[in-house]
Structure formats: structure tokens, C-alpha cells
Amino acid sequence: MELDRIENILEKYFQGETTIAEENELKEYFSSPNVAQHLEQYQPMFGYFSQVKQQKSTQEIPLQTKKRNVAWLSIAASMVVLLGIGTYFFTSEKNAAPAVAQSELGTYDNPEEALKATQKALALLSNNVNVGIESVQYINEYEQSKNKIFKQ
What are phi and psi of 92, to 5 degrees? Predict the structure, then answer.
């Protein structure tokens, strides 16, 4: 009866369905001297588990901590900040130079050139205003037609 129980527990063990109590029972059975002959092949496996359980490691495991050199880290961070500031000022100076040249646009030394440029700008403005006025006239015509049709 006990042999059948051990075989059933052994089958469950290999399927991964045993409880801890059943595994302890197997270990006890295979560590005893009266193991069935057809189950002797499993005796070294369970004997190994009991041997390993009794072993204690005396080896010391060194813990290596990572020491970060704060000085190098702070120097690197400072260099990055300085590089960023230098890049900002370098690009801002490049962008500032064309702005000065653009602010000088529209100044003339010769009054005749200034008059011609002003007349050209006013003619362009006048054309655009006239286009806008024509659009408003269409809207007025639409309003009059709508009023005639719906007679308010």
C-alpha cells in the first residue's frame, strides 16, 4: 500500500503537482535503506537534495560598490552648461547681425528716391483698398436684392 502511495506521489512530483508535505515524504522514503528495487534509480536524486541541504557555504562573497567620482561628474556637468551658454550666445550674435541690417531698410539719402518709393507703396495700398471696396459694393448690392425679395 505504501509503495503504491509513493509511486503516485512520484508521478505527481514529475508532473509538478506535489505539495511540500508530499515532497518531504518522498525525501524521507528515498533516504531510508528500504527502497523498492524499481525505484532505486530515483534514490541519488533525492539523496542529493538532503546532502545539499546540509551543506553550508563558508565562502565570503565580496560586495563591490560602485564609487562614482563626484569631481569628474561635476566637471563634466559644468562643461556641458558652458558649452550650452556659448552656443546660445554664438547663435544669438549671428541672428542679431541681420536684424541691424533690416532696421536700416527704408532710409534713403536721396529725397527723390524716397518720394518714388513712397508713391509706389501708396499705389500698392490704394489698389488693395480698392479691391476691398469693390467687395463691399457686392455685399451692398446683395443686401438690396435680398431686401427687395423678402420685403422687410
Answer: -70, -35
Q: Name the nearest CA neighbour of 53 among 35, 27, 21, 19.
A: 27
Report the alpha-carbon distance of residue 43 to residue 35 in Å, rounded: 8
CA 105 to chain centre: 47
Distance between CA 125 and CA 119 in Å, rounded? 10
Burial class (CB in 10 A: 0-12, 13-18, 19+), 22: middle
Each of the 152 residues of the chain gets a pLDDT tens digit; together they read 588 888 888 888 888 888 888 888 888 888 787 888 888 888 877 777 666 667 777 778 777 766 667 778 888 889 999 999 988 888 887 666 555 455 566 678 888 888 888 899 898 888 888 877 777 777 878 788 888 888 75
Could you tell me how many residues make up the chain? 152
Q: CA–CA separation, 145 vs 139, rounded Å?
A: 10
